[in-house]
Design a protein that fits this description.
This protein has a domain of about 80 residues: Jelly Rolls, CATH 2.60.120.10. By secondary structure, it is mostly beta strands. A hairpin with a 2-residue loop joins β5 and β6. The chain is globular, with a radius of gyration of 13 Å. The N and C termini lie far apart (about 30 Å). Helix content is about 0%, strand content about 50%.
Length: about 110
């Protein structure tokens, strides 16, 4: 593996669009992956539950992120960390597009199941 990986804007590894949702896989190694997620107003992800841990950094807009039985309101600059084996999902609760970065380890995100 390389010691340094630089991913320039527009050079994502892959991209997936669903109605109201847009995901860009920016980086994936044996230990970590990074995804930029965009949710249109009122759009929500499906529920996820998988091995590992992850953090979400809000870049724009507002989301409600539910982990297990608890929901957290995130806005620009907020960061949320959680274990991935607890059911979780994101919902845009704002009036503008929400954009956030998810970093997870190990890279167990179910890319094809979005």
């Amino acid at each position: 593996m390389d010691e340094v990986i630089l991913v320039k804007k527009g050079d994502q590894k892959s991209e997936l669009k669903r109605p109201g949702r847009h995901y860009r896989l920016m980086l994936k190694t044996k230990q970590i992956e990074s995804i930029v997620a965009e949710l249109d107003p009122q759009a929500e992800s499906r529920w996820f539950q998988h091995q590992g841990e992850e953090m979400h950094l809000m870049l724009q807009g507002e989301i409600e992120y539910t982990v297990g039985e608890h929901s957290y309101k995130l806005s620009e600059g907020d960061l949320l960390w959680h274990l991935s084996n607890v059911r979780h999902r994101a919902k845009n609760i704002g009036k503008k597009k929400a954009v956030y970065v998810t970093v997870s380890s190990p890279p167990t995100f179910m890319w094809g199941d979005l």
